[in-house]
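Below is a complete specimen:
___
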Amino acid sequence: MGRVASSADNAAMESFFSLLQKNVLDRRPWPTRQDLRIAIVTWIEKTYHRKRRQRSRGRLTPIEFETIYPANLTQAA
């Protein structure tokens, strides 16, 4: 994320919110804001961050990348 009003930043956020809406918001009615908040956080932590393939990691999921390249984790720390 870089410059103000960057179209690349807007596209990335639009893609994220589209996935969020399709996978969480539109699935069912939410009785309370707290239930929705928990569902959003759970989806981000369990699905979006762990299962989403990332171009910068050779189209691997974060779990696959950490399994294949464990040395990168120790170098980053």
Notes: The longest helix spans residues 7-25.
